[in-house]
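Slide 14.
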Amino acid sequence: MLIGTQCFTGHPAVVEILGHGGWDWVSIDMEHATTDFAQVEHLVRAARLSDIVALVRVSDNQPILISKALDAGAAGVIVPHVSSVDDLRAAVESTLYPPGGIRGACSTTGATSYGALPWKEYVEAANKGVVVVPLIEDKAGVDNFDALLKVPEVPVYWIGITDLTVSLGLPGADFWHPELIKLARSLNERAAAAGKELMIAAAPHLRPDYIKHLASLGFRLISVGTDLSMYRQAINAIAKEIR
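Slide 15: predicted structure.
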C-alpha cells in the first residue's frame, strides 16, 4: 500500500514533515485550496528535499494549468472530473511535448533545475515519466471506466468518492455501503486486469479500520485526508484527552 495526503495549507514544512515521516506521495491541491503556482514551486522543492513524490491537483483540465504544474517540477498531475476518453487524452496530451502532445517548451524552469539539466535529456525523461492521475468522480466516468482503462499512458486512476456519491444518488455514503462495496470491487478487478491501480481518499473516516477496509476492496493507493483534517483530528483528540 502507498499512502499520501492532500496538502491544503500550502506550507512547505507540511510537505517536509510528510516526507521525513515516510509517506509516499503528497497531492498539492489547487482545486479546493487557495494554493497558487508561486507556492507550488516551494512545495515541490520541499518534496524533493524530503524524498516524497509531489503531484499537483490542478483546478481544471486545461493545458496551461497542467504545463505550469509540471514546469514547477511536479512528478505529475491529478486532473478533476475526467469522464470520457476525450477528457483523459486531452490531459495526457497536455503533459507531453510534441509530437506526442501539446506541452509548451521552456528550458529554464524548476523542472529542469533552471536550465542545469540538458533540455533534450529532460524532454525524454518527462515524456516517459510524468504521471497523469484522472479523477473519476462522476457517473459518466464510471460508465466509461473500461474505455478509460485503455489509455496506455495512465497507470493510476483516482476514484473521487465525495462527488461520485452525489452523482450516483448516494450523497454522503462511504465504502461500507453495499452498493459502493460492490462498485469498488468491480472497479478494482477491472483495473487489475488492465494492469492499472486505483487511488482512493480515506474520507469521511480517517481511521485505520476504514483504511484497511479500503485496502481489502482492492485499493492500493490511499489518500489519508488532508493536512488540515489530520491536524484537526489530532488537536481535537489531544484537547479531549487533557481535559
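Speaker note: The chain has a mean pLDDT of 95.
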